[in-house]
Amino acid sequence: MVLSEELTGKNFILSYSTSQDDSTTVLFKGVEYDVVHSDLTDGIWVQFSDQPKDYKLVLFDQLIPDKKALLPNAYIIPVQWQQVIEKLRLHGIQYTILNEPKEIAIKTYKFSNVAFARAPFEGRQRVQKFDQEEVSMLQRFPAGSVIVPVNQRSAKIIAHLLEPNGPDSFLRWGFFNTIFEGKEYVETYVMEKMAREMIKENPRLLDEYKQALKDHPEVYNNQWAKVNWFYQRTAYHDKKKNIYPVGRIFSTEF
Length: 254
Description:
By secondary structure, the protein is an alpha+beta fold. The protein is built from 5 helices and 12 strands. It has helices spanning 82-90, 155-162, 188-201, 204-215, 223-231, and strands at 11-13, 16-18, 24-37, 44-59, 63-65, 68-70, 74-77, 96-97, 102-116, 127-141, 146-149, 247-249. The protein is extended and about 70 Å long.
């Protein structure tokens, strides 16, 4: 078993999927049943009896690592995310607090093709799926920001909460949904003209645009979404939008 203090700098598996190739046959003790058509709801009605019956079922019991993340030495959370910081405290996770502003070299994630669940769950609007890429930056963190070292007893919980791809991460549970809100917008009539100027200056941009429409038709399915694709590639776009505010520190000096 990997000790918590050994997780730093290692790939940590956040989720698994089941193999669709390897399987075993198991004996399932159930009861006889009939499947009939419902004249009331026009659906399928399963009617169970009280007669025991054994069934041979195929069980896909081989687990394959799915999502994983390279764990840093520590995570840093800006002071404004107090709800997240309070959740760490409730989980018994240890952290230190910056007494003064400090510039720190971090790695974090930039998200794209974000999709939300159609309905709230347990009172929260969950993030259903997203693509992410790693970005590096030097960022100034204000006093009151917290640094969460991975080298502690709760290392695995920390990874599952702060790595976005964790199935129950803070990001997936909607604690960071405001980072996906655009604070600046542009009118379509402005971008229609500007997009053509951008393509004229960089013809390869048109190929990238067409590929984005092909790969993500559920995202770029209206005029505003399409012109916004070009707007995101201008100097006027909000650079903090879709940037994960939690920093990942790959240094022992924090």
